[in-house]
Structure formats: structure tokens, C-alpha cells
Specification:
This protein is mainly beta. The chain is built from one helix and seven strands; from the N terminus they run ββββαβββ. It is globular.
Length: 137
């Protein structure tokens, strides 16, 4: 039997500043929320806007880049995979779904970072080619 496919592509805005931390072994991990917007026609014929929130996790160099260059409101394109973690609280099993990001392109204009005041798109791309399976935990 062949491999499955678990790939996510999102374009959205950060809902908060990225939070960078390090594992006990020194591996960088960065977490933030990303908002994506969708619209559809409701039963009454009017357009309805809907925002979906995604929990994003980046590892290693990509985590450090996110922490350094992204902030609340930054617009990015990302690729990654869906991962569901479980934890137990008060004797009940809980599930937490996140996107583990492995590629990211910053879509904000240079002007939003104060560089030259131009509105050319920022073409910064970052690819984290290592698998999360390489992590020590």
C-alpha cells in the first residue's frame, strides 16, 4: 500500500505575535495562530464572512525566522501538515489539532517592515526540510 497525503496550504494573517521557545535539547519551536477568511452566500442571499483560526507550530530555523520577522497581523503563505495531539485533563482525554509548518512565504509589502517604503511583495521563503520525526521526543 502507498503512502498517504497530509498537506495543508494556507494564506492568512497572524492573530498574535509568534511565541518562540526551546526544547530541553535546544531545538527551537515557535507557535502562533493564523486567521483565514472565507465568504459564502447565506440562505437569505447575502454574503456571510467567516474566519477560521489555525494553531501553527514551526520548528528549528523556520521557528527562529518566524519569531524574528513575523508579528501580529503579518500575512503569510504556509505549507505544512495537520497533526492532532492528545492530552489528559481531569481524567478526560482532550484533542488539540495544529498545523506543523514546513514552508513559509511572507506576503507583506516591504513597507510594512519599514524597508524603503515600497509596496513590492516580500519574496522571503523559508523551507524546513527536516522531518518532525527527527526530533528527540
Amino acid at each position: 500500500m502507498g503512502k498517504g497525503l497530509n498537506k495543508v496550504m494556507l494564506i492568512g494573517h497572524l492573530g498574535k505575535d509568534p511565541e518562540l521557545s526551546y526544547t530541553p535539547s535546544g531545538t527551537a519551536v515557535c507557535k502562533f495562530s493564523l486567521a483565514t477568511n472565507d465568504s459564502y452566500k447565506g440562505d437569505d442571499g447575502n454574503w456571510v464572512e467567516r474566519t477560521e483560526w489555525h494553531n501553527i507550530t514551526a520548528w528549528r530555523k523556520l521557528a527562529e525566522v518566524c519569531s524574528q520577522y513575523l508579528k501580529k497581523g503579518s500575512r503569510i503563505y504556509l505549507e505544512g501538515k495537520i497533526q492532532t495531539d492528545t492530552y489528559e485533563k481531569d481524567g478526560k482525554k482532550n484533542y488539540f489539532t495544529k498545523i506543523v509548518m514546513n514552508e513559509m512565504t511572507m506576503l507583506d509589502s516591504k513597507g510594512s517592515y519599514g524597508e524603503n517604503g515600497t509596496s513590492e511583495p516580500k519574496a522571503a521563503e523559508v523551507n524546513d526540510s527536516k522531518s518532525e520525526d527527527d526530533l528527540p521526543f
